[in-house]
Amino acid sequence: MRTRKLGTGGLEVSALGLGCMGMSEFYGSGDDDESIKVIHRAIDIGVTFLDTADMYGVGRNEELVGRAVRDRRDKVVLATKFGNVRGGDGSFLGVNGKPEYVRSACEASLKRLGLDTIDLYYQHRVDPNTPIEDTVGEMAKLVEEGKVRHLGLSEASAKTIRRAAAVHPIAALQTEYSLWTRHVEAEILPACRELGIGFVAYSPIGRGFLSGTIKDPSTLEQGDYRRNAPRLKGENLDKNVAFLERVETIARSRGVTPAQLSLAWLLARGEDIVPIPGTKRIKYLEENAAAADIVLTAGELAAIDEAAPVGVAAGLRYPEQAMRAIDE
């Protein structure tokens, strides 16, 4: 597995990371023992950039990842996030970027992870009620104290990114980016490149949709939040399946899976882009990792752009309430 650099501060990660969220919540039931095997296999094959957050499973995902890496800490780059506040019952309580919350959230994450230092610490969502300068200022103190090595933002606008970078170097922006979510190409990705900030693409396989395996969301487990995703409902689903079938045709002609094609396309968008596909199964982990070795031709890239142009997806990325938490 090749590596890529995020930002200008020396943070080097595997070209593909592993999103761990679904191991604990949102994508149906999980199996901690199997998930730890997936994480260990990821490390063995060079996928050493692991992504979690304090809100995933209301802290359980951090605990899981922490257990998985405790005896191989020196082999991984571990990223986690704060800012989305949840109650003990799982209820969503809003976004908090206040300095005192930044510090308490970091201390809690370090305890759950069982670590002394977080390699990359993101603000998960921008708090509209707290100046970004105040939030990043406190995050910078965590760097000074050695509790955090590098700082990141998630789902932040170009304007917010610039304000944050004026306070402290930002190593990475984590935002959704895939063949069916290309809004970042207009302003956000150019701003990151202007400022020397790496781009971590979450949901690079469109929450599994671009793999071609969930054309009927009713087949998903009860409790899987994708059953209610706007893009997987009614006419939106029909339109999105139509463009997916065009992508599948290109994948077949190349002899790869649609998921691999989607990841190879993202990797070809620039050396500063690191996709972090998530999975709970070793089979899909290995399939995704193999995408790092796929080099697409100019003709194939043009065909993919034609099949899935900017704005091709029908429907919002998230339900309306969740979209209101995104800084655009």
Write a compact overview of the structure shown.
This protein has 328 residues and is α/β, with parallel strands linked by helices. The chain has helices spanning 32-44, 60-69, 99-113, 132-144, 158-165, 188-195, 234-254, 258-267, 282-290, 298-307, 320-323; strands at 3-6, 11-14, 18-19, 49-51, 77-82, 84-86, 92-95, 118-123, 148-154, 172-176, 198-202, 273-275. It has an 8-stranded parallel sheet with strand order 3-4-5-8-9-10-11-12. A two-stranded antiparallel ribbon has the order 1-2.
Describe the structure.
With 328 residues, this protein is α/β, with parallel strands linked by helices. It contains eleven helices and twelve strands. The chain has helices at residues 32-44, 60-69, 99-113, 132-144, 158-165, 188-195, 234-254, 258-267, 282-290, 298-307, 320-323, and strands at 3-6, 11-14, 18-19, 49-51, 77-82, 84-86, 92-95, 118-123, 148-154, 172-176, 198-202, 273-275. Strands 3-4-5-8-9-10-11-12 form an eight-stranded parallel sheet. It has a two-stranded antiparallel ribbon with strand order 1-2. Helix 1 links the parallel strand 3 and strand 4. Helix 1 packs across helix 2, helix 3 (99-113) crosses helix 4 (132-144) and helix 5 (158-165) runs parallel beside helix 6 (188-195). The longest helix has 21 residues, at 234-254. The radius of gyration is 19 Å and the shape is globular. The two termini are 34 Å apart. The mean pLDDT is 96.
